[in-house]
Design a protein that fits this description.
Distance between the termini of chain B: 45 Å
Number of helices of chain B: 17
Helix content of chain B: over 70%
Order of helices and strands of chain A: EEEHEEHEHHHEHEHEEHH
Strand content of chain A: 15-25%
Number of strands of chain B: 2
Radius of gyration of chain A: 18 Å
Structural class of chain B: mainly alpha
Shape of chain A: globular
Strand content of chain B: under 5%
Largest sheet of chain B: 2 strands, antiparallel
Largest interface: A-B, 28 and 21 residues
Number of strands of chain A: 10
Shape of chain B: flat
Oligomer: heterodimer
Structural class of chain A: alpha/beta
Chain lengths: 247, 430
């Protein structure tokens, strides 16, 4: 099962940004949504997390339709946005307790795992800090801990490595892989294709709000005459193609 | 674009914004409030001045201290206004010389213009009292005005001085560390207090020569201003961090003033941890959902709502105590109004919380969100009702009336007003 996006069309303020977008993120898989700026990645994610209502189409997660039961759908999602968003009045510990409580998770049962995550990201001694004292990278780590501690069936990550140091980046990759091993799905957006190729199962390429390609990293590389090592050149090619198409 | 023009463009943009906020500020209710306040002040002033100068009431030394304090408070009004933006640090980085020689020159002109208006307002408002306490000769008053104007210019120049990078080799005579409380006390209060005291109270029979001397001092300060203005652009560079901070602080002060009366968008929020109130959060949210706890924490640590509620409760108590001889029904109505106002002040917290992405992602229905907030309002209404009733316990029947009036208003709010208001917010959020 996992996430199924079917014929999704949507956008904002009457603009049709997405046109008939269909793809899947099966349980146990890591899928990367890629495309140039303005391709529709963020809009797709906004629809999946319930921030925008689709014009047409269906989004299902393990059999739950977002339109039919948005609350149940949201209870199965953990989301890490590109820009960390925290309540300025809440300490780190209060953020985590709040997240657990609103997702119906028992504090006592989950706190050991939370402690491990905090230790991993060197936040264990900052439990009583307010966000005003956090750097941007630390804020992002708080979002990561809050998302991973939920063990949600679907993890959605928008640009996972922004503002993170190398150690934290490695940790996030390892944790995403652990999520997949536990039969949960991971959907992420990234521009670092060559490095993503080592842990991603499939790439979904968006262009102008339409799906252009779905396949494994090797298939994506082969389709553009690239290798896994030179996969980052995909965006150069895409841009050149776009320029030729527009002229 | 020349930096002179940049400054004036920003100046006019800010004036347009101020005019916009003033229109919001001077709405019908505020004008009525202002007219009543002004009327009351004029009546009080007239009664005060109606007392003959021979009355022992005017003979006390407190009037002199009060006058001095009033003028010193006035002296603190009128900041150095630069309208510098954080982005200037990047885009105007290579223009330090022109910033100093042109932009800041215009800034000082405008700042001094504003400062003169403030000082005149303070002096004019105290003028009748000055004459009553015997300070009515032209020389003394003239010397006082010239000193205040001169000293204000020096204060503005000193603020500007702090925005420049100082060469490390330059010897600096430091009496106090910069920007410390002792320094502020010395230059902003103690020194002008001594000189003003000398002019107004210790030298009652000043000669015309003294006035001329003060005029010369003013001229000297102006000369010093032009000389340093000419020198600084060749020598000094701008210390951007304090320059931006100073400008932002000034901006925040103005926006905070407007926010007392009208909703100001993009006003930076101020949060206070208030660990001493953690017991209150635990007590309020004991055994309740995470969302309820979130509302409780945001309310307690918010720098605007909690002080506002406390002020409302305090004002409510004072009004109710002063109405101890008023008709019974009036007391009940006032208690109900206090409860309504408290609810009205807490309500925006709901919309603000729903706007946060983190809240929107919570797997909770709109009904669950509204219920939690409704409970928070109920709790605060009851707490407030108990406090204002207890404060009036000296008259038990009246206290009971206050409590019943508060409960009736709480019931109305809980069953009709709050659900309706929250539904409206939920609809808008969808």
């Amino acid at each position: 099962m996992g996430l199924i996006v079917n014929n999704l069309s949507g956008g904002y303020a009457g603009n049709n940004v997405l046109r008939d977008v269909s793809f899947e993120v099966p349980n146990g898989k890591i899928v990367a949504l890629i495309g140039l700026n303005g391709a529709g990645k963020s809009t797709t994610i906004n629809h999946i997390i319930g921030e925008q209502q689709p014009y047409t189409g269906k989004i299902e997660l393990n059999g739950t339709d977002i339109a039919a039961d948005p609350t149940k759908f949201k209870s199965q999602i953990a989301y890490i946005p590109e820009q960390p968003i925290l309540y300025e009045e809440l300490t780190l510990a209060e953020h985590l307790h709040l997240m657990l409580a609103t997702h119906g998770k028992d504090d006592q049962e989950n706190w050991d795992q939370v402690q491990d995550l905090l230790k991993n990201f060197r936040l264990d001694d900052k439990l009583h800090w307010l966000p005003i004292h956090f750097s941007k990278g630390m804020r992002q780590k708080v979002m990561i801990v809050a998302a991973f501690m939920l063990n949600a069936p679907l993890l959605v990550i928008d640009e996972p490595f922004l503002g993170l140091d190398t150690l934290a980046q490695k940790d996030v990759i390892r944790m995403m892989q652990e999520q997949a091993q536990a039969d949960r799905s991971v959907l992420l957006t990234t521009h670092l294709l060559a490095s993503a190729a080592s842990y991603v199962d499939d790439f979904v390429v968006l262009r102008d709000g339409r799906i252009e390609f779905i396949g494994t990293p090797a298939e994506l590389a082969a389709s553009h005459g690239l290798t896994i090592e030179t996969l980052d050149d995909f965006f150069n090619l895409a841009q050149q193609e776009e320029a030729i198409y527009e002229s | 674009m020349s930096l002179d023009r940049l400054f004036w463009r920003r100046f006019f943009k800010h004036q347009a914004r101020n005019a916009r906020y003033m229109r919001l500020l001077f709405n019908d209710h505020f004008i009525i409030f202002l007219v009543i306040l002004l009327g009351a002040a004029i009546i009080c002033y007239r009664i005060l001045l109606g007392m003959p100068a021979s009355n022992p009431f005017w003979q006390t030394g407190w009037w002199q201290y009060g006058t001095l304090a009033w003028l010193l408070i006035g002296l603190q009004f009128g900041d150095f206004v630069t309208y510098v933006k954080p982005a200037d640090r990047l885009f105007l980085l290579g223009n330090d010389r022109f910033m100093v020689s042109r932009y800041f020159r215009q800034a000082l002109k405008v700042s001094y213009g504003y400062a003169i208006l403030w000082q005149l307002a303070f002096i004019i408002s105290i003028a009748p009292i000055l004459t009553r306490i015997g300070i009515n000769n032209v020389i003394s008053v003239g010397s006082m005005i010239i000193f205040i104007m001169t000293y204000k210019l020096l204060m503005l120049m000193e603020t500007r001085e702090k925005l420049f990078l100082k060469p490390r080799t330059e010897p600096d005579v430091i009496i106090f560390e910069r920007n410390t409380v002792p320094e502020e006390l010395l230059y902003h209060f103690l020194y002008p207090a001594v000189v003003l005291g000398l002019i107004l109270f210790l030298q009652p029979n000043l000669s015309a020569a003294t006035l001329i001397l003060w005029l010369l001092v003013l001229a000297g300060v102006w000369l010093f201003h032009f000389r340093t203005n000419h020198e600084k652009w060749q020598v000094y560079a701008i210390d951007w961090a304090p320059t931006v901070r100073q400008s932002q602080l000034h901006e925040q002060k103005i926006l905070h003033f407007y926010s007392l009366f009208a909703e100001v968008p993009h006003l930076p929020k101020s949060i206070k941890r208030r660990p001493y109130l953690d017991w209150l959060i635990s007590w309020m949210s004991g055994g309740r959902s995470g969302l309820y706890r979130l509302y409780a924490i945001r309310l307690v640590r918010n720098d605007e709502i909690l002080p506002l509620i406390i002020r409302l409760i305090a004002v409510g108590i004072v009004i109710l105590l002063s109405l101890s001889q008023a008709p019974f029904w009036l007391t009940v109505v006032v208690a109900a109004v206090v409860i309504y106002l408290i609810n009205f002040q807490i309500l925006p917290l709901y919309e603000e919380t729903q706007k946060t992405l983190w809240t929107r992602l919570m797997p909770l229905t709109a009904a669950q969100r509204s219920q939690s907030f409704g409970r928070l309002l109920l709790q605060w209404s009851l707490i407030s009702a108990v406090i204002i009733s207890l404060a009036n316990l000296a008259q038990p029947l009246r206290a009971l009336g206050i409590f019943v009036g508060s409960l009736l208003m709480t019931a109305f709010l809980q069953w009709y007003y709050v659900p309706h208001a929250l539904k409206k917010v939920n609809k808008g959020a969808r």
